[in-house]
Design brief:
The protein has 171 residues and is mostly helical. It has eleven helices and no strands. The longest helix is centred in the N-terminal third of the chain and has 25 residues. The chain is flat and about 65 Å long.
Length: 171
């Protein structure tokens, strides 16, 4: 967590969401204490080094710290940012299987919270901010493919059942 904080400060929100979701998924509150015990010394070192080098320490630049209502910037440019794989992300949410495995909630929380956080940024919209949630988006896309594959939607059973029902001749 502390090393991600050193690379880009707002990612700390995502890291905390992942940590909490993982602790809930594992049903292990001790995980939070262990993570914090490792994070605090590294975070203190990172802050100290930045302060020693620059004489100041700021969590975020001014443009990143102003929260506004939800912006559709990242929805509008989703295909350009994520590629066509982004079309599969909503499909993952349509299947009950997505919610059956509690570890999937880590990726769901990671994607939703990070997407909403960056979309609520008032004026600093940049495609590069989505890199922080790409692993979650691609996991959800793969999960959607897996769900479609296992649901037999593409196997033709739907069409076979449609023909057996007698409705196909009436159309």
């Amino acid at each position: 967590m502390a090393l991600t904080f050193a690379s880009r400060y707002p990612i700390l929100l995502q890291v905390v969401v992942i940590l909490i979701a993982e602790a809930i998924a594992r049903r292990n509150a001790k995980l939070v204490a262990t993570a914090l015990a490792g994070m605090v010394p590294v975070l203190a070192l990172v802050v100290s080094l930045v302060y020693a080098k620059t004489g100041t320490f700021a969590i975020a630049i001014t443009r990143d710290s102003q929260i506004d209502i939800f912006s559709l910037y990242y929805v509008e440019y989703a295909l350009a940012i994520f590629g066509p794989v982004f079309l599969l992300v909503p499909v993952a949410f349509l299947f009950k299987r997505t919610y059956a495995d509690r570890y999937n909630f880590v990726f769901i929380a990671w994607f939703i919270i990070a997407f909403l956080f960056w979309s609520a940024n008032a004026g600093n919209h940049q495609a590069r901010f989505m890199i922080q949630l790409m692993p979650a988006a691609y996991f959800l896309a793969v999960l959607a493919i897996d769900n479609v594959w296992k649901s037999n939607i593409l196997s033709g059973k739907i069409f076979t059942n449609f023909k057996k029902s007698g409705l196909s001749g009436k159309l």
